[in-house]
Amino acid sequence: MAGGTTARRGTPLSDRSGPDARKGTGAPKPPKAPKPPKAPKPAQRSGPKGPGARLRRGPVLASLAAAVLLAAGGTWALYGSSWLRVEKVAATGMDVLTSEQVLGAAAVPVGAPLVSVDTDEIEGRVRGRLPRIDSVDVVRAWPHGIGLKVTERKPVLLVKKDANFVEVDASGVRFDTVPKAPAGVPVLELNAGRSPSARRFDEERLLHEAVLVAGALPEPIAKETVQVKVASYDSVVLELTGGRSVTWGSGEQSDAKGRALNALLKAAPKAVHFDVSVPTAPAVSGS
After folding, report:
1. SS3 (DSSP) at 121
2. How far apart are CA 180 and CA 165, in angstroms?
3. Angle at 199 between CA 197 and CA 200, to 5 degrees
4. Which of 5, 169, 208, 231 lies in disulfide reach of 235, CB 3.0 to 4.6 Å?
């Protein structure tokens, strides 16, 4: 065609030069190496941030402050205020002792904070100053009181001493000396000087045997017992009202002997002599 360049016809497209023309004609490319796994990202600390967190901390701080104030107020109320102080002290349970004697021995600090009162120390003072008291329970009676619940020792035997009588309880404790014998408590008569066993069983041991016997007597019989006579370890005799007597033997098996004597007194009320030295074979005479 005139006036221009005529392109060649029939030239294949594959003969065209350029990068695309070389694709697929050379050697295959090597496979790509796998990428190493990514290290895990460090965990981020969770927690409230920003103004909202400050707002949420407000009530917590307020609660802590209120708790501190409450604790301080409670401590002041217990120790510093006049609301919970000792104003009244009372004693109960006495038979022989008076309330004034017990309260004087206790020496409770009136006016002191009730919470600071040492109850163990008060108990020690009462028992130390008044041997007649076997036990005392010291309790706080809120808001202003202290109570003393007293248990006195009970005499089961009397030991003659000059013109007086020494009271002895069931544990063998000599706790008081009185000018007059209490009613219903037997008197010890100890005549063990000529006993063959006197060297082996001294007066203290014989007193212990007498206490065992007197402490095992049923209450109705104890009230009728006038004397407990001890000549030796295994020779204990009771003198009852109405001229009656009881051969007891030793202090062994005293509980069984007491039960046997109680049964004999009911079965033979007119008898004048009872023998319970062998509690399984008791005997009576003079009925």
Report:
1. helix
2. 7
3. 65
4. 231
Q: Would you say 189 and 227 are in contact if contact means Cβ atoms under 8 Å apart?
A: yes
Confidence of residue 68 (pLDDT cuts 50, 70, 90): low
Q: What is the DSSP string of 206-272?
A: HHHHHHHHHHHS-HHHHHHEEEEEEEETTEEEEEEGGG-EEEEESSTTHHHHHHHHHHHHHH-TT-S
Distance of CA 159 to the CA centre of its chain: 36
Coil, strand or helix: which one is 59? helix
Q: What is the pTM of this model?
A: 0.67
Counting other chains too, the contacts that 236-239 makes at CB distance below 8 Å and 24 or more residues apart are 236/209, 236/210, 238/186, 238/213, 239/186
The answer, yes or no, to whether residue 213 has pLDDT greater than 60, is yes
Residue at token pair 């109705």: 220
User: Which residue is listed with tokens 């909202």?
Assistant: 52
Answer whether 144's CB lies under 8 Å from 84's CB. Answer: yes
Query: What is the amino acid identity at position 103?
Result: L
Instruction: Give strand pairing partners of 239.
Output: 227, 245
Helix axes 203-216, 254-267, angle to 10 degrees: 50
Nearest to 112 by CA among 138, 86, 146: 86
Q: Please say if the pLDDT value at position 119 is more than 60.
A: yes
**Residues constituting the chain:** 287
